[in-house]
Amino acid sequence: MVNPLGASEVARTEISLIGVPMEAGAGVRGCTMGPAAYRAAGLVEALRELGHTVRDEGDLPVPRAVGGEAALNALSDRCRNVREIAGWTRALHDRAYALMKRSGVPVFLGGDHALAMGSVAAAARIAEERGKDLVVLWLDAHADFNTPDTSPSGNMHGMALAYLTGDPSLAPVMEDIMPVDPARVHLFGLRSIDAQERQIVDARGATVSDMRVIDEFGAAALMRDFLASLDPAKTHLHVSLDVDFLDPDLAPGVGTAVPGGATYREAHLVMELLAESGLVRSVDLVELNPFLDERGKSARLMTELVASLFGRTILDRKPLRPTP
User: Fold this and answer.
1) How far apart, in whole angstroms, are the C-alpha atoms of residue 173 and residue 189?
2) Considering 59, 284, 287, 293, which one is annotated as catalytic?
């Protein structure tokens, strides 16, 4: 099938879209409108034009806040909306796990980045069952490794990776998850980190390509090195793409904008290299806040990036490996 940019035969897969209209983890309201903005920006149509089968599963219903658990209640003075986050995490984990049991690639339309506490937990469970290594690519201006004791704000979208890598203080959000090995977490695009959070990242051993390194060596070289380090036979690659990975001049529709982010071509090149790898098995799109956007600018750019992630190119290039 010829894609809209004049290219190419693409590897077809089944893509499931599930909206996650949550904003309990963020400090600025508006992320609940994110899933609708992706649909209005033509995400379904863009993916179908590439030859993929697209199932729009609708939005995850707003779950009931979890209450009555002493350990969870004890976090409420340090973690904003922790009972709501626990409800979302448990509901999204169950839905994401069911989607991942099928073939194809689920894409979670956020919603703030705390949604990854459910989606990545489900990916870890699936990877364990299938004998795979879960690798998480965190495309974000922030590290999101804060804990209840280190977070300046108490906003839980900044604690997602601490939770997923097994920080015991956050375990009450949902017990018995399969912790992600921090060495298999790659932070790409980092340019804002709290002092105590930096110590956590260093201690946990997560790999980091911050914007200084990207400026010095280039996004393409670093992304190629990262992908070359993965065993295609054993890897479940989960991509978690935050709008603030991008420079805010390109994508202003985010509550945590940080200057100096990825350029238009850097971001597309990262997506194109991921598509060529054929390793992506699940995807988060997070922190889109249409209330802060400019005439849909951020939603349209994120939609273009997802199209690149699923095979849109300028010229014919066949994927290095087939998508599932």
Assistant:
1) 27
2) 287
